[in-house]
Amino acid sequence: MNANVLFRSFQEKFQLCIEERTTPTLASQIRVEDMCQDEAQKLGPKEDEKEWKMPFFDRDHHLAYTFADLSKCPTYLDASRPWLCYWSVHSLNLLNHTFSHDMKSKIVTFLKTCESPEGGYGGGPGQIPHLAPTYAAVLALATLRCEEALASINRETLANFLRSVHQTDGSYIMHTGGEVDMRGVYCALAVAKLTKILDQSMIENTPEWIISCQTYEGGFGGEPGTEAHGGYTFCAMGALTILGKAKLAEKDSLLKWLSNRQMRFEGGFCGRSNKLVDACYSFWQGAVFRLIDMELEKEEQPTLGLAFDTRALEEYLLICCQDPRGGFRDKPDRPRDLYHTCYGLSGLAVAQSYDESKQLILGGEAACLPPIDPVLNITAESETFASSYFERLLSR
């Protein structure tokens, strides 16, 4: 038995083979394929063995790494501190970690220092409110699944902040005087939906603006006229799903573009045409298939089924992206970090969601992750808890 038989990824027939002088882009692709092949070969039998090893999900090391990094903040991420909370808390939740009451209170207290008097959250204490850390802070609080966390969110000032950055053409700026791009629309609508403050003033012309960003390739760019990108495509489809307008997207070209982003040899996804595989796109691209399914179910049409190779994606994540010390990395030669740990685990949860019996999950029962809400990227349990809490506020 060899890797070609055991795995759906790492097939020699899909490997790029160019003997003549090549471009830097192709040289990088060949280098990444070689690295992935080397990682797969590590599972092969040693001299005194006959069988290949199956990939192992290293839950204990992932827990230790993620929990240890929860309290760390490198200087270069000082404006992303709510993101560090979200990446850590969501990862730990996916790994079935139970937070102590003391730890929950510390996280709530810290994020409260990031909340602006004007509404929304900044990247750290005393920083201006910005849609990206606002999204991260609200989702981190929701992930804790406790009323203390959800009650800490000032919904009135949050709504005021969201209205202040909504533009007349339907787009959102990331902060006062800031740039327009698709992230702003998604972050604003996601927190408004979850906290039950979404109203007409926040969505005027927004569906039309989102659709204007769909490109000739089928994916979505950050703003009209820009290149299709995995992160922006997720944000666009997530926002349209929140608005109940996903039917406006041109699905055939979108599906073609999405499907072509899965790398045939590595099994993971890339973010754009002619780019390298990256663990984070396991979620950014993979979750969009689930969003399309949600729209098809709403329209009472057949769902996509297995529109991408979920097994190959699991192989890329478990074989090539797990750091031996815990955590996930972009690709084999890159360092681990909380960002790729969060979205690697989230992508793994998306891939596993296609196996309802949980009998065919790579890595076995030990690798099983809880289901996630593909719109918000928090666990389904966290979304249900938060939605129920904010619904009760509306009825008072």
UniProtKB/TrEMBL annotation:
One of its GO terms (molecular function) is zinc ion binding. Keywords: Metal-binding, Prenyltransferase, Repeat, Transferase, Zinc. Its cofactor is Zn(2+). It is an enzyme of class 2 (transferase). CDD domains: FTase. Binds 1 zinc ion per subunit. The keyword Transferase applies. It catalyses: L-cysteinyl-[protein] + (2E,6E)-farnesyl diphosphate = S-(2E,6E)-farnesyl-L-cysteinyl-[protein] + diphosphate. The keyword Zinc applies. Heterodimer of an alpha and a beta subunit. This is Protein farnesyltransferase subunit beta.
